[in-house]
Amino acid sequence: MFELQTPPEPVQDPTPLAGLVLPSWDLTVGLINATVQIDQMNGDGTRRVGTAFLIDAPRPNGEPRTVLVTANHVLGGMPAAEARVGWRVESPEGGWRFSPEPLRIRD
Fold this sequence. Notes:
The structure is a single chain. The chain is mainly β. It is built from two helices and five strands; from the N terminus they run αβββαββ. The chain has helices spanning about 25-35, 70-75, and strands at about 35-40, 45-55, 65-70, 80-90, 95-105. It has a five-stranded antiparallel sheet.
């Protein structure tokens, strides 16, 4: 049915990594810092919670703009026109606090 195959020998890259310059921006840390919580009260004491992230997406004319990106099911489960975006604010001592603010999600 299936023929057994011998995997190929790995090819060594002749380019040494010593001259490799690491990026000054860490993608993992950048994504964590760009991630926010969005939530909405359900009216029965519970709340719908989801995550989103923020990206810089300048308008075609170059004007700065920040865009909130989340999954359709997150906003689809929030029937009211307003939710909250939960900002993480770092304290001088190095801890974090949650600081929610209103967010209009539909007209």
